[in-house]
Description:
The chain has nine helices and seven strands. By secondary structure, it is of the alpha/beta class. It has one domain (7-236): Rossmann fold, CATH 3.40.50. The longest helix is centred in the N-terminal third of the chain and has 19 residues, at 59-77.
Amino acid sequence: MCTVVKRVVVFAPHPDDETLGCGGSVAEKLIEGYEVFVVFMTDGRHALEGFVGSNGPTPSEVKTIRRAEAINATRILGVQENNLFFLDFEDKKLYESECAVRERVVGILKELSPAAVFFPQEREYNVDHRVTNSILRETLGTLDPRPIEYSYIIAWSFPFYPLQHIMTENMFDRVVSGFPKRTLVEVDILRTFSLKEDAIEQYRSQTTRMFSGQKRPVLKHSFLRRFLKSKERFFIN
């Protein structure tokens, strides 16, 4: 008898979003027997702008660094390198290529027919995240059967971001759950938490002062702490 392996596809606007947003859940799905694929929408080349001076790496060099980090991080989570898609659209300019991006996304989803899809929620601060969400929601609505949709949270846009700092976690959850009109769920990742920690550490270009003259990491420690918990949170359809 032929065994059917269910597939999961993770869409990451930039290298590191897949690990921060759902790294533990990726590892959990693999343990449960799913085949996991990760699609990196942009190349992340502009991530260090404003953090390093003229002696820092070029955008092309940053692109190479971040691809290597992504391969290492997802390997730790258990994803095979052959299951990675690097679409290589320019960082911060995904909106300029929406038609081409949508075409690639449609092709991947039709080829893989996933049981579940992970992608960023619609009220993200970063424009590449919002474009990714828009394209996925539009595309997933045409699929039959439609996969389960897990929308992960990286960084809220205004006015949610300041509210997050003045409300209790439970109160904030009740507020934001009303806007996307979806259920907010928590996934226990205790058994894969150490894998997620190790995977995050692979993104040294984002989490450390990796280059000469760099004043601080791209991602502050206070920001990273939000993702270093034994549960991951998603809006689901």
